Amino acid sequence: MGKGVQADSDDGGLCFGKEELETKLDFFNSKVTTNTLEQVGGMIKYEDIGIVRDREVDLIVSVVEGTTYYSNRASVRNGLLGEFGQINIMNKKNNARQDGEGNFQFCFHDHETGDLTAVDSFHWSFYDIDERNEAENGIKEKIRFDTSQVTDFILYPNEQESEVMLSCEDGTTTLPCEDGVRTVFHSSTKGTGGDNPKDPQNLTEQQKKRSVVFTFMDTSCFTVTMDHYCAVDNCRWYGGGNFMFSGNADEIIEKGECITSPPELTSSPTKNPTMEPTISPTKNPTMEPTMEPTSPPTSPPTAPLIEEAQDGGPTGCLGKQNVTTDLDFFNSEVTESSLSTGGVIRYENIGIVRDRDVDLVVSIVEGSTSPSKSDAPNGKDGLFGNIGLYTVKGDLKSGEGNFRFCFHDHESGDLTTVDSFRWSVYDIDSRNAADNGIKEKMIMDITQVEDFILYPNEDESEVKLSCEDKTPLPCNAGVRTVFHSSTNGTGPDNPSDPNNLTEQQKSRSVVFTFKDTSCWEFTYDHYCRIELEEGGKCRWYGGGNFLFSGDAKEIIEEGECVTPSPTVTPIRADTNGAGDDDDFFLPTTCPDDVKLIKQQGLTPFPEDAASAVRIVSQDTSTVTVKLEQAWMSSTVIDYIHYEYKESLFDLKCYEEVDVDLDTIYDTITIQCNVMSPKAFLQICVTDDISKEFLTLEDDGTVPQCCHSTTPVETPTVCYSLEINCETECAETTARRNLRRGGSSS
Hints:
- With 745 residues, the protein is mainly beta.
- The longest helix has 6 residues, at 250-255.
C-alpha cells in the first residue's frame, strides 16, 4: 500500500492528514462479534480494529442517546462488506421514526479490559456519498459532522471538483461553519450499485470524488449523523441505503486536497443536489439560425403537476397528474446517431423505471425508408431531442419520417415497459403560411396514449387536428390523427427551454401522456402540400428539425387535456405505494385470467389474485403484467423473487428487496405457450420469521437461476401461476393494441 506524503495545507499550516499516523484501522481483518445496532441499546462491535500503543483495540458503534435508528435489513446489511464497515439506513414515506436518519457514536475500547481508549492519530474515510436519482424527487445522502472533532479532512481531487458538496447545517453560505454548527457533506451525483467501491486502496476516479478522509488526533469517541433522505414532500422511491467507511484511503490521501479551514463559498453555481444545472441556450434552430442568443432556461418544475377535480380527487386526465418517469433529454447521452443511414439514435439514461436506468432508442419503422439527410445533426439540441428532416423537390416522401421510439433497460438491453410518462412535441409550424410554403404535420394513432394536452385549448392552439382519412373527428378505429401546423415560423421563434415557452411556442406544441408503454410509433412530415396534393411546386425546399422532450410544465398546468373515450371502466391503483399523488388508472383484470395452480408453503396467495398480478395487455404470443406487493398481512416483505419465460428459450428470474405493501415492483412481458394461449409465472416470497408474516411451514425453494441473496433457512413460500394470453372476459377483449410496442395500422 502507498504511504501518505507530508504536505502543507493551503493556509501554510501542516496537514496532518498527509502524514503517516499512529494507528491504521483495519476493517477487513477485524471481526464483528456483536451486530444489534437496530435494537434498543444495541451496537456493532468490530473486534481488533487496530493497535494503540501496542495494545489491540475494538471499535463500538452505538446510536446516540435520545435518537432513533431504523433498518429492517440491519441484521444482514450492517457490519462488514469486504474491506469496508457498513451501516444500512431505511427511509419510509411519512414515517418520522423511519426517516432515513441515523445518529451514531463511534468509540474505541481496549480489547482486553474494555476501557475507553484514546487513539493518538488515525484516518477515517467515508465512501460512495451519492444519490438514488439526481432529480429533486430522488433520495439523497448527506453526512453531518462537527469538524471540530478532526484536525483536517481531504477531498479528491480538490474541494471544487469533488462530488461531495460542503455547506453548513444552519444554512449559512460561508465556511468554516460557526462554532457549534455542523458541516454538511452532501451527495451531488447519481450512483448505482454497480459503481460502489470494492477496495479502499483501488478506487476509480468517480469513487474517489465521492469520498472524504478525516484525520483524528487524541480521540476516543466521535459522533456523526448519516442521512439517506427525501428532500421534497414526495420522492419517486423510498427504501434503504448503505453507508460505507474504512480507515485509510491512500490514493485520496496522497493526491487529494487537505482542508484545515474550508474556503468561503462563492456565489457561483454549485452542484447542490436538489437543483438542476443551468443550461446554455439551444444551438441548432429548427429551420434557420437563431439571430441572437436565447435567454437561459428556467429551472425544472419544483412541485408535482397535479390537477384536482372539483371534489378534490384527481381528474381523469393522467397528463395533469404525477407520472412515474420523467424523460430527461438534457442529461441523457447520445451514444449512437445513425438514423439517417437506417440505424438508430440511442439516448442513454433517459430516465428511471422502477429504480433502473433506461435508454430510449429511436429507429425507422420497419418497411419504411429513412428520411432524406438534413444539414442538422440528429440527437440533441440543448434541452430537446432532435431529428432532422429534409424535403427534396420532386421526391414526395423525402421529408417524411416514420419513427419508432422504444425503451430498453440500460444494463440488460431488455425492452422495458414504462408505467407512465409524458412526451412533448414542439415547434409545429410552417416555413411559409402561403399554400406554396413547406408545412409540418405529425400523424399518430392516439390509441397509443392516454391523453394529450393542447395550449391554451383545442380551438386556440396553432396545432390543428384532423383525421388521416379526412373523416370528421374523432377519428374512426384504425385511423390516425393528424396534428398539423397552421402558422408561419422562423428560426428566432424556436423554443430553447421546454419549461419557459412564449405564448406562441406553447400554442405550437403538444404534450402526450403514455401509460404501460414500451414502444410507440408515429409519422412526422416536413412536406410540400401543393406538390403532394395538386402537383404544384413550393417556393423553397430544404431542411427542418423535429423537436421533442419530456415534460412541458406550463402546457401541462395551463393547457386543455383531450382524453380519448375509454374502452373499459378504470379502477384506481397506486403505482408505487408512495401515496395518493402517484395514483393513476389501470384497466380491470379479468378474475379468471390469473389462476394459482401450485403452491409450496403454507401462507396463502392474495385472495384476489389479480391484485398481485395485474394484466396490462394480452395477445396470443405474450402477456404483460404488473407485479404488486398485495400480501395484506405484511407491510414490507424482505425478498420477492419472480421467474418467467421472456422468450421460448430465455428464462428470467429477478430479486426485489424490501418491497412495501401496494408497491408495483415490476412490469414484465411473458412468453405464451406455443400449444395453448397460457403463460406461466412463479413468485417466491421470503420474510424473516420474527416478523410473523411467514411461518416455519413455509418451506418453498427459490429457483436457482434467481441467484438469491436471502439468508439460509429464512421462511419462503412459492406460488405457480397460470395467466391467460387471451382473456376469458368478453368485456375486456377490445382493450389496448399498441401498449407493448406492436405495429400501428
